[in-house]
Design brief:
single chain, mainly alpha, 10 helices
Length: 153
Amino acid sequence: MNTLEPMVRLLAEAHPESAARALEGYTPEEAVRVLQRLPLAVQVSVFERLALHSAAAMLDPADPERWRPLIPALDPGFLSRLLRHVEETHRDSIIAPLPEDRQRQVRDLLRYEPASAAAMMDPQVASLPLDISVQDAIASLRRTPRHKLYYLY
């Protein structure tokens, strides 16, 4: 184990934005090697903060096994923005590890103009039925990941 690995992991966990900026100074191959040594949740946190052109450069079509485990953990909105920086011929191989419904979400987002609100939206939102009890609504909201709770009316 490299003596710097614990420090790199602590930086990435505590300051994913700073870790992303640091990785952008590496070659894509070096950046992938550093990311692979981190826990998946930390990889995602750092990867989703990379400049899109830097993240896209890390998705080498010649070596998909290096980055394939990361793809299913990425947010569909981020993934659709990322794919706009990848050659169209390579896009299907990138989203192949995703379940069919997630692939559909990403493809749907890619249909919109890049600068439109629709292209930037998050297709995974929390919702509740109108006839739910207050107790069931609270229980459901507590099970919902925080990043999916935008507004509650």
